[in-house]
Amino acid sequence: MINKKVKGFLAVLALSIFIPTSASAASYEVVKGDSLYTIAQLFDSSTSRLMQDNRLQSTVIHPGQRLEVPATVYTVKSGDSLYLIAKNQGIDLLSLRKANGKWDNIIYPGQQLLLPGTISPLSASSSAPSGVTAYTQYEADLLARLITAEANNQPYQAKVAVGAVVVNRVKDSRFPNTISDVIYERSAGYYQFTPVANGMIYKPASEEAKKAAHEALSGSDPTKGALYFFDDSATNKWLWSKPLALRSGNMVYVY
Description:
There is one protein chain. By secondary structure, the chain is α+β, with helices and mostly antiparallel strands. It has eleven helices and eight strands. The strands form three sheets. A three-stranded antiparallel sheet has the order 1-2-3. It has a three-stranded antiparallel sheet with strand order 6-8-7, covered by helices on one side. α6 packs across α10 (207-217).
């Protein structure tokens, strides 16, 4: 639920669309000479985001350590070569080798490779109805994990509503303008969402949460514009004073 130490901030996010290559959080093994900065550059991320995603307290890393990175995972097909994969995916061959620690040319069907720097924002026009915010597949997965942590035992409508609140915040000028930044926002030193603070955000998303996230990212909003949500056991008077948008299960959504 919303961190009760902070006046209302809410909910979040969901799902990745099924495509032949999967795009979400992937695991990268640190090698000698790596730094968080160079890894962030390789995977089109940032040092701060890598620290958040891996719950790091400092930028110190060591060879053999595994880090969660935003990357597309590609499954090798018959007839593939590293050169052809890099060419077809529009990425640099050296970056492909670096991302996978692959310095020979031997690959085999079914092998999975990380594709660095290939998770780019999906425009609203190409992935969702007009007016819906842009998002990456990594952010879709992050939203789904948040929905799982916030509303796993709640009705499906409540799950979609959690995702919708995050989308509504992204589109509101008073809040950060990306899914990730809304979810990871801090205020007065506190994360706005309890699952980020307690680590539940790192648990895998349920299939129903993925579906709910997809709906929210595609424009479905049972709250019709809510910006906050909380459990009906909350005692925060400021939250209860706001206009009611929806009640679903134990969840309350307000404007």
